C-alpha cells in the first residue's frame, strides 16, 4: 500500500543493519543512547518523503524517548511507525513491529540471563556468564526486579516443559543474586523469588520441594538492612508444616521431605521472629501448625541415626522456644498440651517428659514458671480423666520443677501446692468411691489412684526443694491447713512471717501437728512422729538410728551442734507429746522405735546440760508411768516403755555426761539381761516378742534410780541443774490433748493424711 513500509523479517544472529540515523528526516533528533550501548547497523532504507512545509518535529531532550501512542496527525503513517520502532529499540523494549524477534536487540539484562543457561543442563550454570549478570545487577540495581521477573519467567517455562535441569539452574542463579545483592535493593528480588518458591512447592515432585526449601533456608539466613512491609509467609508455614507430616511410600524420600519441612519451618522462624513488620509467628493459628508438625517428628527419636527427622526437629524446637518472649510462652505451650491429649501421650514416663525437658531447658529461665502454671491449669482441666493421664501430667510437673530449681516457682507459690493437694484429695475420694467422676460411670482402681498419689507426693517434694528456706515453714503450715480433721486443733492463724526452720517453727504449725499424735489411728500417729523427726533432724542423724538398738558403739559419730536456742521454746511441747504418745494402747513396735529416734535426734540437736537433765526427767516419768496401776496399759506397752527408756539412756550417757552415769546405766542393763530380758529392746522390738505371763512385776534392781543418777552427775557441769530432779516431770495437759472420736468424714481425712506421708522429708534443712 502506498505510504506503508514493508515489514522486514528478523535477521539471524550476527547479521547487522546499516545505521538508521542517516535515513531519518532532517530535524528529527533521536534520544541519546546510554553509555556503552551502540546502535547496530541496518540495511539502507528508501528515502522518506519530505515533511509538508511548515511542519516540524521538535527535538526531544537527552535521554527522553517518545511513548508508543504519540499522536502525530500531521505526519504520514510510514515515518510515524518507523519512529515508534526506533524509540522502542532505544528504550530497550521489545518493539511490536520492526525488531520483535531480533535477539541482538533484546534488552541486555535478558541476554545476560539467557547466557547463564548452557546448551546441556547437565553442564550446570555457566559461571562466567553468571559473574557478568551479577556485575550488571550490582551496577544497575534498579533493574533487579526485571532480572528477577525474567528469571522467574524462564523457570516457569522450563517447569511447564518438565526441563528440571534448567529449573535447578534458574534457582541457583536466583540464590546467587540474593546473596550478592543483600543490600537495600534485595526487596526488588524477594517478591519474584518467593513467588517462584511457591510454584515449586505446589508441584508434585518431592525433589522440587527439597530444592525450594533449601533456597528458602538460604534466603532466611540473609540479614536484611531494610524493612519490608508486604511479605507474607502464611503459605510457607502451611506448606512446610504439611511436609513435616509427609507419608511418602518410600522411607528415605519421606525422611528427606520431613527434614526439609522442618528446616523450612526453622527458616520461617528465623526470618520472622525478630522482625516486627513480618507476620507474627507466635499467633495461635501459626503455632497450632508448627508445634504439632515438630512433635510428630520428635516422637520418632533414634539416637543411632544422626540424620533422622527427630534430631533436626529437636534443634528446631529448641531454637523456637529460646526465642519466645514472655507473652509468647503460653501460645507455644498450649499446642503441646493439645497434641499430648489428642495422641494419648501422657501415660507413663516417656515422650511427655522428654518433650517438657526440652521445653524447660530451652526457654529463658525467668519464664519457666509460666510453663509450670500451664501444666497446673491442664492438670485441673483433666480432673475427670483417668488416673494414668493425671499421673502423667503430675510426673511432668515433677520433672519440670527439678529442672527449674531457681529457688522460686513464680509469683504464686501457694497455688502450686494448692493445686497438687486438691488433686491428692480428689484421688483419695476416687479411691474410696471407685469412680473418677461424679456420675459413677468411669471406674478406677485403687492401684492406679495410689500411683497417682505417690506421684503427687513426689512432685510436692520436688517443688519444696526449689523453695528458699524461709518459705518452707509457710508452705508446711499451708499443707497442714489442707488436712482438716474436725475438732483436732483450733483454727490456724496467719503464717508467722520471717520464720524458718533455722530459727523457729511457727507455733501455728507445730501445735496442730503435735495434736495429731493423739489420734486413734496408729498410722497417723506414726506419720506425725516421722514428720517431727524430719523437721528436727537438720543434720540427718536419724538415718543412723533407724532401729532402737541397746548397745551403741562408743565411737558412733553424730553431727552434734549445741544449738539449743533454735528449738528451746518448743522443747516442753515436744516432751509433753512424747509422754502422751507413749501410753497409747494400740502403739506397736514401730511406734516405740519412732519415739526412740525422735528422742535421740532431740538429744543430738539440743545437746546441753539443761536439755540432758530434762530428758532424763522425762525418761524417769515414763518409767514411773509403767509402774502405776492407774494407767491401763497392756504388758506389751509396759515392756515397750521400759525398753525405750533403757535404749535412750544408754545412748544419752555416751553423749557427754560423766562416765559414772554410764556405769549406772550399764549395771541396770546387765541386770535386765540376766533376770528380765523382756525389758530390753532386743526382746520386745522383734517379730515375736517374749513377754511374761500375767501381770508385769519389776524389781528395784532393774530400774534406773533417780538418786544414783544425781550422784553420778555431781561434781560435773550438770550438777547445777540436778536440783530439777527434785521436781518430778509432769506433763501439762491442755484442751488440745482431747482425743478425736469417730466422725462421718473421719475415714476420708485419714486416707488423705496417710497420703501425705512422703511430703515432709523434703522440707528438712540440709
From TrEMBL:
GO terms for biological process: protein localization to plasma membrane. It comes from the Eukaryota. Belongs to the EFR3 family. One of its GO terms (cellular component) is plasma membrane. InterPro entries: ARM-like, ARM-type_fold, EFR3-like_ARM, EFR3_Homologs. Coiled coil: none annotated. This is EFR3 homolog B. It comes from Oreochromis aureus (Israeli tilapia).
Amino acid at each position: 500500500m502506498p505510504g506503508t513500509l514493508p515489514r522486514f523479517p528478523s535477521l539471524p544472529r550476527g547479521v547487522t543493519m546499516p545505521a538508521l540515523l542517516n535515513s531519518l528526516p532532517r530535524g528529527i533528533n533521536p534520544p541519546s543512547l546510554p553509555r556503552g550501548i551502540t546502535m547496530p547497523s541496518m540495511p539502507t532504507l528508501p528515502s522518506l518523503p519530505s515533511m509538508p512545509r511548515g511542519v516540524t518535529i521538535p527535538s526531544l531532550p537527552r535521554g527522553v524517548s517518545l511513548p508508543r501512542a504519540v499522536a502525530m496527525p500531521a505526519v504520514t503513517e510510514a515515518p510515524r511507525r518507523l519512529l515508534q520502532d526506533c524509540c522502542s529499540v532505544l528504550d530497550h523494549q521489545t518493539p511490536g513491529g520492526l525488531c520483535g524477534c531480533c535477539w541482538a536487540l533484546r534488552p541486555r539484562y535478558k541476554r545476560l540471563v539467557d547466557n547463564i543457561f548452557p546448551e546441556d543442563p547437565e553442564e550446570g550454570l555457566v559461571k562466567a556468564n553468571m559473574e557478568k549478570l551479577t556485575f550488571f545487577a550490582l551496577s544497575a540495581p534498579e533493574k533487579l526486579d526485571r532480572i528477577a521477573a525474567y528469571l522467574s519467567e524462564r523457570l516457569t517455562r522450563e517447569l511447564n516443559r518438565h526441563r528440571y535441569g534448567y529449573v535447578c539452574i534458574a534457582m541457583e542463579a536466583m540464590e546467587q543474586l540474593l546473596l550478592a545483592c543483600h543490600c537495600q535493593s534485595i526487596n526488588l528480588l524477594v517478591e519474584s523469588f518467593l513467588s517462584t518458591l511457591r510454584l515449586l512447592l505446589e508441584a508434585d515432585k518431592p525433589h522440587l520441594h527439597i530444592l525450594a526449601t533449601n533456597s528458602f533456608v538460604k534466603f532466611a539466613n540473609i540479614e536484611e538492612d531494610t524493612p519490608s512491609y508486604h511479605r507474607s509467609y502464611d503459605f510457607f508455614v502451611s506448606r512446610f508444616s504439611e511436609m513435616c507430616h509427609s507419608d511418602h511410600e518410600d522411607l528415605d524420600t519421606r525422611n528427606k521431605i520431613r527434614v526439609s519441612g522442618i528446616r523450612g519451618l526453622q527458616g520461617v522462624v528465623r526470618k520472622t521472629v525478630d522482625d516486627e513488620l513480618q507476620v507474627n509467628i507466635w499467633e495461635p493459628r501459626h503455632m497450632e501448625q508448627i508445634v504439632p508438625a515438630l512433635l510428630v517428628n520428635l516422637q520418632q527419636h533414634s539416637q543411632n541415626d544422626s540424620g533422622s527427622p527427630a534430631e533436626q526437629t529437636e534443634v528446631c524446637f529448641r531454637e523456637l522456644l529460646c526465642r519466645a518472649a514472655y507473652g509468647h510462652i503460653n501460645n507455644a505451650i498450649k499446642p503441646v498440651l493439645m497434641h499430648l491429649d489428642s495422641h494419648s501421650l501422657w501415660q507413663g514416663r516417656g515422650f511427655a517428659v522428654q518433650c517438657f525437658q526440652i521445653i524447660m531447658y530451652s526457654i529463658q529461665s525467668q519464664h519457666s514458671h509460666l510453663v509450670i502454671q500451664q501444666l497446673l491449669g491442664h492438670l485441673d482441666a483433666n480432673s475427670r480423666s483417668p488416673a494414668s493421664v493425671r499421673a502423667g501430667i503430675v510426673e511432668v510437673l515433677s520433672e519440670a520443677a527439678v529442672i527449674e530449681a531457681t529457688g522460686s516457682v513464680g509469683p504464686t507459690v501457694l497455688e502450686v501446692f494448692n493445686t497438687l493437694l486438691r488433686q491428692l484429695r480428689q484421688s483419695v475420694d476416687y479411691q474410696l468411691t471407685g469412680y473418677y467422676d461424679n456420675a459413677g460411670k468411669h471406674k478406677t482402681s485403687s492401684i492406679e489412684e495410689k500411683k497417682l498419689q505417690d506421684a503427687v507426693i513426689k512432685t510436692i517434694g520436688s517443688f519444696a526443694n526449689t523453695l528458699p528456706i524461709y518459705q518452707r515453714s509457710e508452705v508446711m503450715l499451708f499443707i497442714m491447713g489442707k488436712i482438716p480433721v474436725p475438732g483436732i486443733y483450733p483454727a490456724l492463724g496467719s503464717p508467722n512471717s520471717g520464720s524458718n526452720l533455722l530459727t523457729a517453727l511457727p507455733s501455728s504449725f507445730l501445735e496442730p501437728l503435735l495434736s495429731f499424735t493423739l489420734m486413734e489411728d496408729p498410722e497417723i500417729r506414726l506419720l506425725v512422729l516421722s514428720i517431727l523427726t524430719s523437721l528436727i533432724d537438720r543434720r540427718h542423724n536419724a538415718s543412723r538410728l533407724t532401729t532402737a538398738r541397746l548397745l551403741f558403739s562408743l565411737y558412733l559419730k553424730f553431727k552434734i551442734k549445741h544449738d539449743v536456742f533454735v528449738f528451746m521454746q518448743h522443747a516442753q511441747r515436744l516432751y509433753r507429746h512424747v509422754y502422751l504418745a507413749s501410753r497409747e494402747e494400740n502403739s506397736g513396735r514401730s511406734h516405740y522405735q519412732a519415739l526412740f529416734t525422735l528422742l535421740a535426734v532431740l538429744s543430738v540437736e539440743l545437746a546441753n546440760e539443761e536439755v540432758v537433765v530434762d530428758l532424763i526427767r522425762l525418761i524417769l516419768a515414763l518409767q514411773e508411768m509403767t509402774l502405776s496401776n492407774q494407767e491401763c496399759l497392756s504388758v506389751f506397752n509396759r515392756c515397750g516403755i521400759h525398753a525405750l527408756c533403757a535404749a535412750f539412756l544408754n545412748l544419752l550417757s555416751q553423749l557427754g555426761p560423766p562416765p559414772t552415769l554410764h556405769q549406772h546405766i550399764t549395771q541396770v542393763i546387765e541386770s535386765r539381761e540376766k533376770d528380765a530380758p523382756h525389758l530390753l529392746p532386743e526382746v520386745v522390738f522383734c517379730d515375736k516378742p517374749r513377754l511374761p505371763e500375767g501381770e508385769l512385776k519389776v524389781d528395784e534392781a532393774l530400774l534406773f534410780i533417780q538418786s544414783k543418777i544425781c550422784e553420778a552427775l555431781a561434781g560435773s557441769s550438770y550438777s547445777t541443774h540436778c536440783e530439777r530432779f527434785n521436781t518430778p516431770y509432769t506433763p501439762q495437759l491442755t484442751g488440745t490433748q482431747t482425743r478425736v472420736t469417730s466422725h462421718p468424714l473421719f475415714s476420708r481425712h485419714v486416707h488423705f493424711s496417710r497420703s501425705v506421708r512422703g511430703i515432709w522429708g523434703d522440707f528438712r534443712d540440709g
